[in-house]
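Need the bound structure for 2-acetamido-2-deoxy-beta-D-glucopyranose, inputs here:
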Amino acid sequence: MAVSMSGSFVLFVGLVLVGVVSSANFDDLFQPSWASDHFVYEGDLLKLKLDNYSGAGFSSKNRYMFGKVTIQIKLVEGDSAGTVTAFYMSSDGPNHNEFDFEFLGNTTGEPYSIQTNVYVNGAGNREQRLNLWFDPTTEFHSYSIFWNQRHVVFLVDETPIRVHNNLENKGIPFPKDQAMGVYSSIWNADDWATQGGRVKTDWTHAPFVATYKGFEINACECPVSVAAMDNTKRCSSSGEKKYWWDEPIVSELNLHQSHQLLWVRANHLVYDYCSDNSRFPVTPAECVHQRHQ
Ligand SMILES: *[C@@H]1O[C@H](CO)[C@@H](O)[C@H](O)[C@H]1NC(C)=O
Ligand SMILES: *[C@@H]1O[C@H](CO)[C@@H](O)[C@H](O)[C@H]1NC(C)=O
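Answer from helper R.:
Posting the output first, comments after.
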């Protein structure tokens, strides 16, 4: 297994890293979960194809708690209207937790949108949407989910675009007791994805191809044989073991990152469930508290 010496590893090399996995090879970490005939392997690159027969998807071989997951993606070029490419972490079952990136395609020349969502105990409806400051179809860009007991952070090229804070001290549940798998897929969602569902997928432009590389998981691996409660304990820093994602300099946003987040929200946010009064006449509790931070 190729272990990448990322900055965080070098920085915290003196610490005990229990069950932390890092790799750059698709096969070490992931496997096709549907339509493996819509996968194309080209050296370091993996391509997932969507056509009028099928989309495709992959999932991690293991489950994780806390840490950081990064994938580099080059989204569908040209006409991508009606298509959605997703990258997310999710646990299983009706009370599952989920952290989602959904890349919503558009007609040629119109911008892709990124929608993020957070599910806690089976309940989502926490969508945010933004347009990017670059064209995500011409180059690879990195998309990451960072997760510790304080917050979940969504990052694009290391710039935080969303933070979901732990507000358990305000009585609001936070996802920190279920191991999550890592997933990605491409599928047809032309009933809602592009311009509110008005623009349909033009199948004469198929196949729609999303290209991937640089798979990295720096997280606490949770064997299926270990009970959920024990996983939380195993994956939490304590006296004798310290995980890098709990270290003070990475465990919360630094000043630079806080400024980046403000910049993204001021210039690129196009939708936030927290300010959708027609959908939520009563402001969701976490939004009320988020504002005061
Ligand atoms: C697509 O392009 C239109 C027009 O520029 C824009 O309003 C919309 O936010 C874009 N994204 C999606 C997913 O429709
Ligand atoms: C899929 O699209 C191709 C090209 O437009 C067309 O020839 C074919 O009949 C379609 N197949 C199905 C199952 O719709």
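Comments: The chain has one domain: 7-12+25-229+240-291. Residues 7-12+25-229+240-291 form a domain with the Jelly Rolls fold (CATH 2.60.120.200).
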